[in-house]
Amino acid sequence: MKLNKKKPKSLFIVGLVLGLFIFGAGCADDTQEGTEETADAAEYNQPVEIGYVLWDGEIASTNVIQQVLQQAGYTDVEIIAVDAGPLYQGVASGEFDFTTSAWLPQTQANYWETYGDRIDSVRVNLEDCTIGLAVPTYVEEVNSIEDLNDNKEMFNGEIIGIDPGAGVMQITEDVIEAYDLDYTLVSSSSAGMTAALQRAINNEEPVVVTLWSPHWAFNRWDLKYLDDPQGYYGEADNVETLARQGLEEDMPNLYGILERFAWTHEDIQSVMVDIESGMAPEEAAAKWVENNPEKVNEWIGEEVEE
Questions:
Q1: What average pLDDT does range 227-251 have in this prediction?
Q2: CA-CA-CA-CA torsion for 276, 299, 73, 64, nearest 10 degrees?
Q3: What is the CATH number of the domain that holds 189?
Q4: CA proximity to 243, closest of 142, 131, 95
Q5: What's one GO-annotated cellular component (predicted)?
Q6: For position 49, which CATH number holds?
């Protein structure tokens, strides 16, 4: 019987080929994994610019999301305060990567109509937010917007507002016209409005202001919204996170955090109260982040947890 001496050599060649294939596949996996790690590292080193408006709630949410991103590993996260119009324009143009400060679908509807086709709506981060005109509860004679003209002298014919570009201010201008109010809407700022409110309450004087919920003022003082029979202030809004177009492709991990970022009135209110009590916004945000690790880890996601 003649032995086949070529068989062992053939088996050796087959084994060598299989070994090279397995080794090559392993190298490919390592290369792919290394490429993904390099891409992640590059993303975390990219600058992140967040736009926001100087409303108390938005100061709170923006400082919190800044610290969440820093905890996630982003090395350069800047927050920039602007009025509502420049905020939407900045997100639409790519000047800002995102904002957590959009009051929609009603309060800032005009800005969304102008810029919405150039902006990505990521998600609602806070539900059931109300705007309107508010007075201290001790002003018993006034319970509706319709009562204001009969009590014009009581309020010196003034409604104390915030920054003129804010959605609540533009709606209030419409309210003054619709209800034929003989009042002047006084532009100020969020801080200026609450200072005027505090002065009036300290002296138990009447005052009517533009206000919204959540707001720390409702925790500190007894206030009431005036009824709006014509419905100009509408149903409750939501606060949304908006992003520049292309952010999801450029920074997918960051975009994932934004898709998961959502909290409650109780959450944001605790940060707002600390800020109003004198704590710096970044300190109040750090306190909340430290006290809520489970929620923060949920936002960050498993892929970036330590």
A1: 95
A2: -10
A3: 3.40.190.100
A4: 95
A5: ATP-binding cassette (ABC) transporter complex
A6: 3.40.190.10
